[in-house]
Structure to design on (320 residues):
């Protein structure tokens, strides 16, 4: 199945189960060419599962895509063969995973791991692939790239390993980069450098970026548009300025109140009571209602429909 690509990535009514338990429930999401979309929410909301589904990297079984579509450049990724997916992953769609030490192979040099992607997806010889590896390490800001290509992952700092992961992801000039918590476990200064680098590369190359994070401060600074996830669904989506100034969903409102910059210095930061319900234990109705201070009877019994506008949301009692 093929659609005219109004968006580079278009997820439509996606349902994903683990066994008989739904993890993703009717998810719809789109990313335009050249834009950075922020996908936010607490751990357990379904952000990383969504990222893996886009690239067809889910553990199947126990996971199973029940129904839906994931269109990339107009073609349904879910209908592609494994051979076709091998040409897509790492080539036109690239990913940066949360922890580079578990994603990089400890027994190969960083240069070899970058060159491997080039050799796999481009008609290139070993000499040209190694040259490309040096160029990429220089491009992502690693000093002395000619020496860095010979290093093993354990010989690099956390920030350098994350930059090496970005170099691998950029090896074939992807059209879509999925960055899943790309600054996890890095100190604040390095986090800022990595995010600035991703944004610079997006503007330089024109690639689209799906930035998955729980850090709303990062989203407000780098993303043009934001989608908020809870309980396996997108509960609100809007332009970043609009969402931060006029949130509609009560979950989004609660998240924004936890940002340190939103509170007076010296005051205790507010917290959202309770935890994200796991798959199989999500309540009937709006999944957020057990943690919502203004939940009413209808919130407990019925899932609100998505109000699909420029500023989309699903909430029975939206923020005024």
């Amino acid at each position: 199945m093929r659609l005219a690509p109004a968006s580079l990535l278009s997820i439509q009514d996606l349902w994903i189960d683990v066994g008989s338990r739904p993890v993703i429930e009717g998810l719809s999401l789109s990313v335009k060419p050249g834009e950075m979309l922020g996908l936010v929410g607490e751990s357990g909301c379904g952000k990383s599962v969504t990222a893996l589904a886009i690239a067809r990297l889910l553990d199947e079984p126990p996971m199973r895509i029940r129904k839906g579509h994931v269109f990339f450049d107009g073609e349904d990724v879910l209908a592609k063969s494994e051979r076709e997916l091998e040409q897509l992953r790492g080539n036109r769609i690239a990913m940066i995973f949360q922890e580079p030490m578990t994603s990089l192979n400890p027994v190969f040099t960083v240069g070899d791991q970058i060159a491997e992607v080039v050799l796999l997806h481009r008609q290139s010889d070993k000499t040209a692939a190694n040259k490309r590896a040096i160029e990429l390490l220089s491009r992502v800001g690693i000093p002395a790239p000619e020496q860095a290509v010979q290093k093993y992952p354990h010989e690099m700092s956390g920030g350098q390993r994350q930059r090496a992961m970005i170099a691998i992801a950029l090896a074939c000039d992807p059209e879509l980069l999925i960055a899943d918590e790309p600054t996890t476990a890095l100190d604040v200064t390095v986090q800022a450098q990595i995010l600035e680098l991703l944004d610079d590369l997006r503007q330089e190359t024109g690639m689209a970026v799906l930035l998955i994070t729980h850090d709303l401060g990062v989203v407000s600074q780098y993303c043009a548009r934001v989608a908020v996830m809870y309980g396996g669904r997108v509960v609100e989506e809007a332009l970043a300025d609009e969402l931060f100034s006029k949130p509609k969903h009560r979950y989004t409102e609660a998240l924004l109140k936890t940002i340190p910059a939103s509170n007076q210095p010296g005051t205790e930061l507010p917290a959202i009571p309770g935890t994200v319900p796991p798959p199989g234990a999500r309540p009937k109705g709006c999944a957020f209602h057990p943690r919502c201070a203004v939940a009413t009877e209808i919130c407990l019994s019925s899932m609100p429909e998505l109000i699909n506008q420029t500023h989309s949301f699903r909430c029975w009692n939206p923020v005024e």
